[in-house]
Design brief:
The protein is an alpha+beta fold. Helices cover about 45% and strands about 5% of the residues. Strands 4-3-1-2-5 form a five-stranded mixed beta sheet, with helices on one face. Helix 1 packs across helix 9 and helix 6 (about 205-220) crosses helix 8. The longest helix has about 30 residues, at about 135-165.
Length: about 290
């Protein structure tokens, strides 16, 4: 249990060492810490990201658009190593004042502009290319509801369960139980939906699946937060597993999962992506 002797001060300050995996870069302030420009390529879209679940949402979307023949979706992808604080450079803060990946520059038109927040990027690309988001009002509402369901639940899985179970410097029963319960509830919501529908939005694969897959599938595969698959009894969620396996087999998804990946086997890493040729010699077979 947590230390029962701790009494919060009247006014909190950041002079207490919090520990944990990201303690060295965490601060209660926003803004740039280093003056450094972003690299730039020649493609219509410039992505600055990392292959965390939120980053993978966008690379899957871009690769799926290219898989459908939308050459206008070509993009340059540059890795932002959040462990080293690269998200706090002046160039990155200029395209995302919140200093979180992913961030995208749309330079496809006469006037380029930035986009940040993965959900906003997915919706923008879907509308721009007319793919993976239905136009029928009811169907569109269903898909967007599942997209933003993920946006709302992601922090409970990552910053909640993932942090206290895998990253916190000490293990405390209360927060682990609290967020384990919520993560399992989230999986149960998805599992019940997928018991009645092939995909989260209905019969068709959409940005709802792209948003949720990078968060849920690693639990099915047992590749996130140490022994979380066993701890949370993820094998209980048979419908989520069926859905995750089907999506993982898609070529666009297989490519998208490699982009900006800097860990694991070298043949499953891709620090930068500028064209389809960058995938040559890479192992696209992720195990589920």
């Amino acid at each position: 249990m947590s230390d029962p002797t701790y009494t919060p001060p009247e006014v909190w300050s950041a002079d207490t060492v919090s520990g944990g995996k990201f303690a060295s870069i965490n601060r209660p302030t926003a803004g740039a810490r280093e003056d450094k420009d972003l690299p730039r390529g020649d493609n219509p879209f410039q992505l600055h990201s990392l292959a965390t679940p939120n980053g993978v949402k966008v690379t899957i979307m871009l690769e799926e658009l290219l898989e459908k023949g939308h050459s206008g979706a070509e993009y340059d992808a540059y890795t932002v190593n959040i462990g080293d604080g690269a998200q706090f450079t002046s160039g990155f803060v200029g395209i995302n004042p919140n200093s979180k990946i992913p961030a995208l520059i749309d330079a496809s038109g006469d006037t380029e502009f930035r986009l940040f927040e993965s959900g906003a990027i997915l919706v923008h690309l879907a509308e721009k290319f007319g793919e993976f988001l239905p136009t029928d009002p009811a169907a569109r509402a269903e898909v967007l509801s599942w997209v933003f369901w993920q946006v709302g639940t992601g922090p409970f899985i990552g910053g909640g369960f993932g942090h206290f179970y895998a990253y916190a410097p000490e293990k405390y029963e209360y927060p682990i139980n609290r967020y384990a319960m919520e993560t399992k509830r989230i999986f149960d919501v998805a599992d019940k939906r997928l018991a009645e529908n092939r995909f989260l939005g209905g019969d068709d694969y959409t940005i709802a699946d792209m948003a949720n897959f990078p968060w849920l599938a690693p639990f099915v595969a047992g590749t996130i937060y140490n022994e979380a698959k066993t701890f949370l009894s993820i094998d209980e969620y048979k419908n989520v597993a069926r859905w995750a396996r089907e999506i993982a087999a898609r070529p666009g998804v297989q490519r998208g999962r490699l982009v900006n990946k800097v860990w694991g086997d070298e043949d499953q890493q891709l620090l930068e992506r500028h064209s389809a040729k960058d995938f040559e010699g890479k192992n696209l077979d992720f195990t589920f």
